[in-house]
Amino acid sequence: MRERGVRKALRDNGLTLVFALLFVAALAGQALTGLALYNEQAVADGVDRISLLQYVTSSDFAVDVAENWQSEYLQFLLYITLTAWFVQRGSPESKPVEDVGLGSDRDQMVGRWARADSPRWARASGPRLWLYSASLGAVMGLLFLLSWLAQSVAGTSAYNEQQLRQLQAPVSWAGYLTTPDFWNRTLQNWQSEFLAVASMVALSIYLRQRGSPESKPVGAPHSATSIEG
Amino acid sequence: MSRPHPGMPQTEQLGERKVAAVVRAGRRPRSAVAALVAVTALAATGGCGGLHPDGSAAAAVAGRFHDLVRRGDGRAACALLVRSTVEELEQSSGRSCPAAVLVAGLPRAVTVRGNDAYGRSARVLMDHDVLFLTVVGHLWRVRAAGCTADGQKPYDCKVKGG
User: Fold this and answer.
1) Which of A3, A163, A217, B73 has the fewest CB atoms found within 10 Å of its own CB?
2) Exposed, middle or buried, A204 (CB in 10 Å: 0-12/13-18/19+)?
3) Are residues B34 and B114 in the same domain?
4) How far is CA A19 from CA A22, B28, B47, B52, B156, in A?
5) H or E stretch including B136?
6) Residues in chain A closer than 8 A to B118 (CB atoms)
7) What is the pTM of this model?
8) Is A47 close to B147, i.e. CB distance below 8 A?
9) Contacts of A149 in chain B (CB under 8 A)
10) Do B84 and A104 touch (CB under 8 A)?
């Protein structure tokens, strides 16, 4: 009975577990390759190499991680909010073309249309309902801003360490926000996130992946919008 | 209300479709609280770990270096230099480091005015000199001294590593 419970838990949470493991593996790989790169540069600059522990607690590692996290959360924020107002006919990533907007209270199951098992704040009215109705975008936005802040703080430190190694003057945090280093890190991540979403939205109109909820059913017409396999 | 589209699978009741859509949208970030903690920890680690190493210790080494040069103790002064700087000093002057450092033309500096330290590098501003230091093992050591600013370019230093 206990074994069945564990197997069931693994099966029911498999998607999260697989991606969590992939994340850990990729982060470990990033740490090792980042350390090698850092030490290559250290030798070239005539300074000491550092250990893996020193590297993963450095601003160099932190900025490389944070710049990716902020762009992921920005992608989520924009995807969540813009899909309320922008549609793509034929894409399973889009709502039906005629449903642009915030939806009726009935569609959203709020107020008198709330179900018995609807979240408590969905059955409320006024500010609590308004807040809950925007909570997903708000939290994504907060995570984006926090990670972007983390990128800017760690980036200032990493940039200034490099400046000092090259016998150049350091800059302030505000000064760092105007440097090509900050904006290059930011924009190189943003472009890939936006490309990924645009690709997914467009390609899913015409291509299929049997069994995936991210795809339309294999036999669904190209014009079918907002259905999943 | 969404209407079934020709070719779509048999539709379920409206309520269940909407619940499925909401579950699908919420599938992505499983735990916002966990993510918030992770991001805040990342900011703290990157900020605290890398942003504020002990600049005062670097300033103390810079002050001691100039003190030793002023007293004519070249051997002890060279012990505070990184190896690459010692090698460069000896190669460019043709003398041993203890002799070369005393005739390198370093300005007389006494008082530390300020310091900037990031990661394993530091800059110390003295009354008549600017020095650059790096961490060797667990100790700050001088990489360059007798440095003057040159606009956006690297400082021009009388003593520096290769």
Assistant:
1) A3
2) buried
3) no
4) 5, 11, 28, 34, 51
5) strand B130-136
6) 59, 157-158, 160-161, 163-164, 170
7) 0.82
8) no
9) 43
10) no
Average pLDDT over residues A18-44: 95
Helix (H) or strand (E) holding B14: helix B14-26
Query: Chain B closest CA to A94's CA: distance in Å?
Result: 11
C-alpha pair distances (Å), A47 with each of A40, A165, A202, B78, B79: 10, 8, 49, 16, 16
- Residue B23 pLDDT > 80, yes or no? no
Distance from CA of A88 to the nearest CA of B (A): 15
B143, B137, B140, B136: which is closest to B59 by C-alpha? B140
d(CA A79, CA A89): 16
**B82 and B151: one domain?**
yes
Q: Is residue B3 part of a domain?
A: no
Mean per-residue pLDDT for A146-158? 96
Query: Per-residue confidence at A45, pLDDT binned at 50, 70, 90?
Result: confident
Domain hosting B104: range is 55-160
Domain count for chain B? 2
How far, in whole angstroms, is CA B18 from its chain's centroid?
51
Q: Please tell me whether residues B128 and B71 are part of one structural domain.
A: yes
How large is the ipTM? 0.78
**What confidence category does residue B54 fall into, taking pLDDT thresholds of 50, 70 and 90?**
confident
